[in-house]
Design brief:
Butyryl-CoA Dehydrogenase, subunit A, domain 2; alpha+beta; Butyryl-Coa Dehydrogenase, subunit A, domain 1; 410 residues; four-stranded antiparallel β-sheet; 3 domains
Length: 410
């Protein structure tokens, strides 16, 4: 099956069922050497070339646009599964999967019709919108100025997650009047320099570094591509989807913690000096640690699946123009926020408990077990659980829904 997936295939011949049936083989391929890649800091460019052939990168494209019509729940499970193999790979697809969702929410829109064939051909989409060194978050200093019949884009971006693997990149900017705007251009356009300089302690292979934009030529047709056909409901939905993507990556990491804990105890760990058991696997305290890790993973998966189901309902309501669309979208936002409050806590605890399954050898650098905690901690900093908890409390106590109406995302 894996050899078949490695061969270029006509997208029309890959159904949703075909793509999902191939997921275990894809995950096995991505998992090969993933811990060693993270330890060495080697970006997995070859993995992204491979993923372009599997159908996973176009699973969510609607049938009306020639795609397999996978659900958001399908896409989220793909994210979890890939993250269990390599969390950096799954994280780096956040922007691409977000672009797919914009196509799914507006299947008749100009942008969807224009770019669906590119997605189905295996093209990847990324970008960068945030900047660092500004007085306040979300401030944009990147500028777009008119020059004859075209424009010029200049500035510095950061958190360019996955852009280094992408064929197309989107960037936010302000125009000459100070109004927000955005562009989408080929990632290899002259003047676009995507750097491998992410220095976070975790998610080292997510390629979340900087972009230098040096007087990049922009055509009029490349302006505001992602804003076409957008609605407040779509913006709110997509913000939740972007947040859920990171939680799905965390879910995959915890699945990997489970795998590492079980295999380590069964094959390598020794019982403690004063243990009542001759083997680590017979030690009651080790059993407890492994059992609690497994329970945490199950709980996280359940929360992720419930939120994805709610977001599927949200997407259907938006596309169909349902009369109760506001209530359905809000229900998905609330489910997403509730999950985030708990998922990070459970995941950090599970990543820490991995070290309770063994002695000093569990901290060996060659095992690289610490990457799990580092990766979860880094992901949790994107959408602080304290913020999600506060807006939940404010909503249920006071009916305040400003955060949900704005559709904030980090």
């Amino acid at each position: 099956m894996l050899n078949e997936l490695l061969q270029p295939s006509a997208p029309a011949r890959l159904t949703r069922e075909d793509i999902l049936a191939g997921l275990p083989a894809v995950v096995a391929k991505v998992a090969e050497g993933s811990a060693e890649r993270e330890l060495a800091g080697r970006l997995p460019h070859e993995i992204f070339q491979f993923l372009r052939t599997t159908g996973l990168t176009w699973l969510r494209v609607p049938e009306s646009l020639g795609g397999p019509g996978g659900s958001l729940s399908d896409q989220v499970e793909v994210t979890c599964a890939l993250a269990a193999a390599d969390s950096g790979v799954a994280h780096a697809l956040r922007g691409h999967f977000g672009f797919l969702e914009s196509l799914a929410l507006d299947p008749e829109g100009e942008t969807s019709r224009r770019f669906a064939p590119e997605v189905l051909a295996g093209k990847l989409f990324g970008g960068a919108h945030m900047e660092i060194g500004t007085p306040r978050p979300n401030m944009i200093r990147t500028t777009l100025r008119k020059e004859g019949d075209h424009y010029r884009l200049s500035g510095e971006k950061y958190y360019a997650t996955g852009a280094i693997y992408a064929d197309y990149a989107s960037f936010s900017a302000v125009d000459e009047e100070g109004k927000p705007t955005g562009v989408m251009v080929p990632a290899n356009r002259d003047g676009v320099e995507i750097r491998d300089d992410w220095d976070g302690m975790g998610q080292r292979l997510s390629a979340s570094g900087s972009v230098h934009l040096d007087d990049v030529r922009i055509e009029a047709s490349e302006l505001n591509v992602l804003r076409t056909g957008g609605t407040p409901y779509a913006r709110r939905h997509n913000a939740s989807r972007a947040q859920l993507h990171l939680m799905a990556v965390i879910a995959g990491i915890v699945r990997n913690v489970v795998s590492d804990a079980v295999s380590y105890v069964q094959d390598q760990a020794r019982s403690a000096k004063h243990s009542a058991s001759e083997t680590a696997r017979g030690d009651h305290f080790v059993q407890l640690a492994v059992g609690e890790i497994i329970a945490a993973s199950h709980t996280i998966d359940t929360l992720i699946a419930e939120t994805a189901r709610r977001l599927d309902e949200s997407a259907v309501a938006i596309v169909s123009g349902a009369t109760d669309v506001d209530a359905v979208v809000l229900a998905a936002q609330l489910a997403n926020s509730k999950g985030q409050v708990m998922i990070g806590r459970l995941a950090l605890q599970a990543a820490q408990q991995l070290f309770d399954t063994g002695g000093g050898s569990a901290t060996s650098r060659k095992r690289n077990f610490d990457r799990h905690w580092r990766n979860v901690r880094t992901l949790c900093n994107h959408n602080p659980a304290s913020l999600r908890g506060r807006v939940l409390g404010d909503f249920y106590l006071n009916g305040v829904r400003d955060d949900f109406d704005e559709g904030r995302v980090f």
